[in-house]
Structure formats: structure tokens, C-alpha cells
Design brief:
Elements (H helix, E strand, L loop, with lengths): L34 E7 L14 H19 L4 E6 L6 E7 L2 H7 L11 H13 L7 E8 L7 H13 L2 E8 L2 H15 L6 E5 L6 H6 L30 H21 L2
Parallel strand pairs: 1-2, 1-4, 4-5, 5-6
Antiparallel strand pairs: 2-3
Helix pairs in contact: 1-7, 3-4, 4-5
């Protein structure tokens, strides 16, 4: 699967104010699984909608940023890639890499337009994971769904069974069209789920940001490891106890705040 060119994206787009991150050994307290992850973004016209602040797309981009940061922190050998599911074709922006700077710099290349083809998007993500360099990595797809799903329940069931057969876990983040998509997503989850390694997170319109809801969800706090940073991170921001890992908690908080400020500035 060819890797899309990243153009002239800066080599380092993570803010300097991160400060020193804790030694790698300390990030693995929870024995987080080694994973290759593909994130499927919904960049359809539906994501222009402003029902999620500031828009569905920007709220989703914020959440994707968080998920990519979380996955690369859970295990330094985790790799993450991103693809976009709407437009003329499924576009793989970056194949799985351990370089968080490259991952984050791929996000601004996503353009909004057309209808999302979630089915083909997940199939393409599966193909990208199949060609991962480290075959010891478990395979996971995280699909953001912010528009009506065109595929039938039967098609989704077939997709789920195929993913399960190939040991691919699937996390589905539903927002925007939560009620309309609920039955189809539950059908897909039932077909793919194995030992509770796949999840559906439904985020209705409300006061909480999409990224904030994901912080306390299994998408970020993977059930196998009990929260990134390890050891039962429920109740703490980013799933990390600041008393145990103050540098990492602070670095993640600063990164999120700066990213949010940057998006507000570019959004006018």
C-alpha cells in the first residue's frame, strides 16, 4: 500500500513546551499492548455542521490528535496511521508510523467534501495494517463516524466477521448522527468483537467536547492496560495520575491546550 506524500510538512510539529517527557520505561507501567493503529476520519460534508463546537470536523480533529498522542505514549513502539473516508477516493494520509510529529502534521492535509464511505475506509485501513512492518503489533482500527452510514447491516456484519477472522480490533466513535447509526454500529460491533477488545463510543451533542468524552472511554483507556500511563487511570485527566507521572500529565495538557488554541486561531 503506497504511502501518501506528506508534502513539505515540518519535521517537528509538536510544541517545544512539552518539556522533557518521562523515560520510556515509565510509560509502560500498565503493560500496554503493542499495537499498529489506523485512524479513519470522517471528512464528509456532514462534518461542516456546527452542532459540536466549533464544528464536527474540528471537534473530531481535536479528538484524533488526542488518540494519536495516547497510542504513541502507551507504548513507544506503537505505530499510528490516518486515512480520510470521504471525497473521490479513500485517501491514506500516512501509513502507520511511530513518529508522532509526522502523524500530527498529516492532519491539516484532510479536506472536507463529499460523502463518507465507512465500509471501504475500514477495508483500506485493514489493508494498511496487514502491511505493517512489525508483525508483533496487534492490529486496531479506530473509525470516527460523523455522518449517516451508507452500507447495509449485512455488509457491515460481513466486514466485522472478516476483521475478527484476521484478529483486527475495531473502535467506533459515533457522533453527529448517533441515533441514526446506532443499530448498524451495534451490528458491526457484535460481528467483530472478540474478548471485549472492540468498542462503540456514542457521543451525543452536549456540553462535553468529543475529546473529553474519549479521555474516559476504552478508546483511550484500553481495557487491557487500565488506562494509558497504566494502573487504573479512571478519574484522572488523560487517564494519568499526575502524582505518579507529573511530567507526562503536564506535557499532554499543554499539548491539548496549544492545539485547541491553534485551531481556534485558524478558525477565526
Amino acid at each position: 500500500l503506497a504511502q501518501a506524500t506528506l508534502g513539505h510538512a515540518p519535521e517537528r510539529s509538536i510544541p517545544n513546551s512539552h518539556g522533557p517527557l518521562p523515560p520510556k520505561g515509565r510509560q509502560q507501567k500498565g503493560a500496554m499492548p503493542l499495537e499498529a493503529v489506523m485512524v479513519c476520519m470522517d471528512n464528509s460534508d456532514y462534518t461542516r455542521n456546527g452542532d459540536y463546537a466549533p464544528t464536527r470536523f474540528e471537534s473530531q480533529a481535536d479528538a484524533v490528535n488526542l488518540v494519536c498522542g495516547a497510542k504513541t505514549q502507551q507504548n513507544p513502539e506503537n505505530s499510528v496511521g490516518i486515512l480520510a473516508t470521504a471525497g473521490d477516493r479513500i485517501e491514506v494520509l500516512i501509513t502507520p508510523t511511530t513518529d508522532l510529529g509526522k502523524i500530527i502534521s498529516a492532519l491539516p492535509q484532510v479536506t472536507i467534501g463529499g460523502s463518507s464511505d465507512m465500509l471501504r475506509g475500514i477495508q483500506t485501513a485493514q489493508l494498511a495494517l496487514k502491511h505493517r512492518q512489525n508483525k508483533n503489533q496487534k492490529q486496531r482500527i479506530i473509525a470516527f463516524v460523523g455522518s449517516p452510514i451508507a452500507a447495509s447491516e449485512k455488509e457491515l456484519e460481513t466486514l466485522g466477521k472478516n476483521l475478527k477472522k484476521n484478529n483486527v480490533s475495531l473502535d467506533l466513535v459515533s457522533f453527529g448522527e448517533v441515533e441514526e447509526n446506532s443499530a448498524k454500529l451495534q451490528k458491526l460491533l457484535a460481528a467483530v468483537n472478540s474478548n471485549d477488545t472492540s468498542h462503540v463510543v456514542e457521543v451525543p451533542v452536549g456540553p462535553k467536547l468529543l475529546s473529553d468524552v474519549l479521555l474516559s472511554s476504552p478508546v483511550v483507556n484500553d481495557g487491557e492496560g487500565g488506562g494509558f500511563g497504566g494502573g487504573g487511570g479512571e478519574g484522572f485527566e488523560f487517564g494519568i495520575n499526575p502524582a505518579e507521572d507529573p511530567e507526562l500529565a503536564l506535557a499532554l495538557r499543554i499539548s491539548m491546550e496549544e492545539e485547541r488554541a491553534r485551531q481556534q486561531a485558524t478558525g477565526g
